[in-house]
């Protein structure tokens, strides 16, 4: 009976606390979030670049990145946040809530860029989270759960040829050997580069261990990532906001076929084992397999085709295909990968070619959490902004965090769907809309007692 | 009756002249053709190079090529030959025969090289012809027909991206506009480069006209080209000599497919018009068409595959295929080209891709002349060298000369079939064998009255 009474009390509490708190969260004045302020924030951060404006080149752990990190930490301090960093360089800025035992409401993205990238990829989520929290503080909001802004370390693959190292470290989806074995173009590994700038651990394993959420004590109640869409849909369809309910599970596989080569004139057709013909067969097989799932979410792209030699009158000796395969359903994507690998073996045997197959990465899909999705939707409606639910086929740190905590993303439109490009652009107004929605979402999520806390009542 | 009498007289003359002359031709001492002398000749010529030995880089009309030409003209002079050059830089060295009205017995090849080529491609035919004529002179041979050594100008496509300009000019298989429009990497055309070194004509058309055999009065009774095999067959099968009875008709076609591209993650399969998939279909169609002729002489190679962009997660916007198609029967080759073009159109229409097709070149096949082939065979037998009849899938100036005159080629083995490579090699003994056979072949052909001359009796 005591248990039942507790349960009833909890239920009443939830109705009481969530109800009014949500309502008041949505009435928050957000005067600090203006297009002008957003414009200035992005101009300031874009100054940290190793290439000429409007492009941004900011590879992780370079001098330029370290200056940008210092700048971001200053913004966090100015917003009243308490900063901590983990072993791999993920930066957290904490606003303490009234319930010290509750999981945190976490929001952020990355600030590193590709070579000759743009100003908005990632940075919208970092500057957005800091701005949203600052605006909530200024509005007098009192969070129950702590709210944290996060800057994930090295989301881009630009320097070490592998993406999302920071969020992989947090979630435990990291093979630590990568931190030693993957090198930048100067032959420097992540571990070496991290140590050189002061993020130190004795070994790759220790880097990973010391970043893992279980070791750092990171307890996430909800994670929200604000990001530009990097696609044309919102702009084309005239929506202000995308509510991302799934992040496709991307993968990259590599298939190589080899043969003895030879002169294009000299070698009779029947004596050939031409790897380009094997590759052509495989490409069509993969296309058929992707179409064959019947789901529009299944996509496969033979993006890279490198044959060697590559001159008109030589039979190639080697063809390398790098293939992107994505799906919102992990098993369905994996079935296309399996078809590709099985077909490669069959084609190679039939054509007497050598072959090798390799999965370079295969992330799990990220599924949006309905509670967070609803909070985003409430915020959009309150602000009179139009929104649509959508999926992200691009990958983000949120895709990894979704493996360990309730997660969702907020997309804002970007011009022409262009990203990873110097002309990447989101207007100050669009950014301000996104940050306001983020603020109201964080307020809704942080204003109520933690669901984990409830279990402990 | 007078005609009949003449004909009978001619027949008797032929039996008389060809018989003994051939026999005596085959008994010629050829003491000047020794491995040691051959070794020296090739070392001397290889010194004219713009890259480090053992590689040879000798692009037409460079300072190095002009020095090599001077050297070759000196060798011709030393052999007692009278030199003339045509408007496009083809160099002829003439040994006057006793019948000034007879067509010439012509032999030679080219001395230009690719970048980082070897010592023997082409040069075996040039130095071989000069050495063969010199040896015949020294042996006291008296030719009825004149014998000429020739160095064809710019057989390699290395500088102006198009091969055999000299022999095309001679035979009239030259689109003169090429001489202005095709440029080297510095933007210099053939016409500009030729004028700069003293081969002058007022216009591209005039270059071509002044080189054409009808304008220069070149009357060829027979043409023989000595060359390294550039393939592995003679060496692998242990033959000393290849008697080339056909030169495959090579062609190069280019097919481009275009599509709208897009992000590999973002674009649903059904909305794509992926040019790499169109290219894969076409590649397999061409392979099938080549196999479908049922002739081992039909070969087709998708040697160059360039897609743009070429990264794993982007649908390409353009794929360019450069395809080599060859056959000893021109019509059969052309049917494969036609299938390729028809299929490209069908595939592009079905996949909603843009496309373009282009024939970059399509030479006619060269058919060996039985009289010359027999003369080569006689010479081989006389010298106790093993020979086989074979085809050349590689292209040579002989392929063009065969369009206007009786032609054949003599192949000598080369190590590992390697050519267009710094390690290209034929031994001094193998070269000496080839040059001796060439000399005895020229003697047989030049010792008898010209067949054209006979018609005029």
UniProtKB/TrEMBL annotation, chains A, B:
Cofactor names: Mn(2+)
Keywords: Hydrolase, Manganese, Metal-binding, Purine metabolism, Signal
Entry-linked SUPFAM superfamilies: Bacterial exopeptidase dimerisation domain (SSF55031), Zn-dependent exopeptidases (SSF53187)
Biological process annotations from GO: purine nucleobase metabolic process; ureide catabolic process
Leader sequence residues: 1-23
Alphabetized GO MF terms: hydrolase activity, acting on carbon-nitrogen (but not peptide) bonds, in linear amidines; metal ion binding; ureidoglycolate hydrolase activity
Gene3D superfamilies documented for this protein: 3.30.70.360, Zn peptidases
GO CC annotations, alphabetized: endoplasmic reticulum
Sequence ranges assigned to domain Peptidase M20 dimerisation in this UniProt record: 254-346
InterPro entries with a match to the protein in the record: Amidase_Cbmase (IPR010158), Bact_exopeptidase_dim_dom (IPR036264), Peptidase_M20 (IPR002933), Peptidase_M20_dimer (IPR011650)
Quaternary context: Homodimer.
Protein name as catalogued: Ureidoglycolate amidohydrolase
Organism: Klebsormidium nitens (Green alga)
Lineage: Eukaryota, Viridiplantae, Streptophyta, Klebsormidiophyceae, Klebsormidiales
């Amino acid at each position: 009976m005591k248990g039942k009474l507790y349960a009833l009390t909890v239920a009443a509490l939830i109705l009481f606390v969530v109800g009014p708190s949500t309502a008041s969260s949505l009435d928050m004045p957000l005067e600090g979030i203006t297009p002008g302020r957003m414009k200035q924030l992005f101009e300031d951060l874009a100054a940290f670049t190793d290439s000429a404006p409007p492009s941004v080149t900011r590879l992780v752990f370079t001098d330029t990145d370290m200056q940008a990190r210092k700048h971001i930490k200053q913004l966090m301090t100015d917003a009243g946040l308490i900063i901590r960093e983990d072993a791999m360089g993920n930066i957290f800025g904490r606003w303490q809530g009234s319930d010290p035992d509750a999981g945190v409401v976490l929001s952020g993205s990355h600030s590193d860029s590709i070579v000759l990238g743009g100003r908005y990829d990632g940075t919208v989520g970092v500057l957005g989270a800091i701005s949203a929290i600052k605006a909530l503080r200024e509005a007098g909001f009192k969070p129950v759960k702590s709210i944290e802004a996060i800057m994930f370390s090295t989301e881009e693959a630009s320097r070490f040829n592998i993406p999302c190292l920071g969020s992989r470290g947090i979630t435990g989806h990291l093979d630590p050997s990568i931190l030693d074995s993957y090198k930048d173009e100067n032959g420097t590994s992540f571990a070496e580069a991290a140590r050189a700038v002061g993020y130190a651990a004795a070994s790759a394993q220790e880097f990973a261990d010391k970043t893992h959420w279980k070791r750092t004590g990171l307890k996430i109640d909800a994670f929200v990532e604000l990001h530009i869409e990097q696609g044309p849909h919102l702009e084309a369809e005239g929506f202000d906001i995308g509510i991302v309910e799934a992040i496709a599970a991307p993968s990259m596989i590599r298939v190589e076929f080899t043969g003895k080569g030879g002169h294009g004139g000299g070698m009779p057709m029947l004596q050939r084992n031409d790897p380009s013909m094997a590759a052509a067969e495989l490409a069509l097989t993969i296309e058929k397999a992707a179409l064959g799932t019947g789901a529009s979410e299944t996509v496969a792209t033979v993006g890279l085709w490198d044959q060697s030699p590559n001159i008109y009158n030589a039979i190639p000796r080697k063809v390398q295909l790098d293939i992107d395969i994505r799906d919102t359903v992990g098993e369905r994507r994996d079935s296309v990968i399996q078809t590709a690998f099985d077909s490669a073996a069959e084609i190679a045997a039939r054509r007497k070619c050598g072959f090798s197959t390799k999965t370079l990465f295969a992330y799990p899909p990220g599924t949006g959490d309905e509670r967070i999705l609803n909070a985003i939707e409430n915020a959009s409606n309150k602000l009179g902004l139009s929104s649509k639910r959508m999926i992200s086929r691009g990958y983000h740190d949120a895709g990894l965090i979704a493996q360990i905590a309730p997660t969702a993303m907020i997309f804002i439109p970007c011009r022409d769907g262009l990203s990873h490009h110097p002309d990447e652009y989101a207007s100050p107004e669009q950014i301000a809309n996104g940050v306001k929605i983020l603020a109201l979402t964080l307020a809704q999520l942080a204003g109520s007692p933690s669901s984990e806390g409830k279990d402990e009542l």
